[in-house]
Design brief:
Layout lengths: L2 H15 L6 E3 L5 E5 L2 E5 L15 E5 L2 E4 L5 H10 L6 H8 L19 E4 L2 E4 L13 H11 L6 H9 L54 E7 L22 E4 L16 E3 L8 E2 L3 E3 L3
Parallel strand pairs: 8-11
Antiparallel strand pairs: 1-2, 2-5, 3-4, 5-12, 6-7, 8-9, 9-10
Helix pairs in contact: 3-4
Length: 291
């Protein structure tokens, strides 16, 4: 049996045992959410010298139950958000702080931007044809936060994101286990020209993890709500940690189309200025259970 075939069979088994029968809900954006049960898990990495220091020490963390979107927010959903806020007086100023769109490339200021696959057509924001269900990219933390609040949710904490990504697996490097990523996981790609689409696939590509979540490694990395501190795990709360009270960068998780295998690991921590609009970063929303 070939390595790739074996990898695919493992994923199919995961699909069979994933929590697909669990309760699902939606936010105002109608994107499906999956319930992540309350409980604790081991967050971070334990082997000193093998993994980056900012992932250590490994520590037990309890999270209350929450819902998380099954896949990243799509271009179609984000365009709907932009259109519903288009009558706001300060839309242009806010939109400029939220996302890069194709029309921005026509300006001198924006000609070198990495675009998301959303444009303005007849005064309305609209995804490029064929890219409606791709994850939105080139979106800032401010844009992601504004979208989640508009939809009736919020961005996940770093702890919530890692718990969801692990899918109930303890001590695994990736959402599927410890095997290195193979065909179907979108990573280690290059973007040859900023007018071309990013080398990603739809937001519901390949197989879900044991919680039924897609894209928790590769394709698009994802903003979290927390401020980033490389030493935070040394003093992190063991119950529903929310990250440092202040900082200059926000946590990014999951790795993207441009990431190495190292950066796809569930414990890997990355970060960026909340004002940045990285070409490989999108997001998904969460909602507290019981609301």
């Amino acid at each position: 049996m070939g390595r790739n075939n074996y990898f695919a069979i493992i994923f199919i088994l995961f699909m069979a045992v994933s929590i697909c029968s669990g309760e699902t809900v939606t936010l105002n954006d109608s994107l499906e959410m999956r319930l992540i049960p309350e409980g604790d898990f081991t967050m971070g990495s334990s082997e000193s010298g093998k993994y980056p220091a900012e992932e250590q020490p490994a520590h037990r963390v309890f999270t209350s139950a929450f819902y998380i979107q099954v896949h990243e927010v799509t271009n179609s959903a984000f365009a709907a958000f932009l259109n519903e806020t288009a009558n706001k007086e300060n839309l242009r100023k806010e939109r400029d702080a939220w996302i890069v769109i194709r029309d921005d490339l026509k300006s001198e200021k924006g000609r070198d931007f990495w675009p998301a696959d959303i444009a303005i057509e007849n005064g309305k924001f609209k995804p490029l044809s064929g890219f409606e269900q791709y994850p939105v990219l080139s979106v800032s933390w401010y844009g992601a936060d504004a979208y989640c609040r508009w939809a009736g949710g919020r961005l996940p904490t770093e702890a919530e994101w890692e718990k969801a990504a692990r899918g109930g697996l303890q001590g695994a490097d990736y959402p599927w286990g410890n095997m290195l990523p193979s065909d179907g996981i979108i990573f280690n790609r290059s973007w040859v020209h900023n007018h071309y689409p990013a080398p990603v696939e739809t937001a519901k590509t390949y197989y879900p993890n044991n919680y039924g979540l897609y894209g928790m490694a590769g394709n698009a990395a994802e903003w979290c709500s927390d401020w980033y501190d490389p030493t935070y795990y040394r003093q992190s709360s063991g119950k529903n940690p929310r990250g440092p009270e202040k900082g200059s960068s926000k946590v990014i998780r999951g790795g993207s189309w441009a990431s190495s295998t190292q950066s796809l690991r569930v414990a890997y921590r990355s970060f960026g200025s909340p004002a940045n609009m990285p070409s490989g970063v999108g997001f998904r929303c969460v909602r507290d259970a019981g609301k």
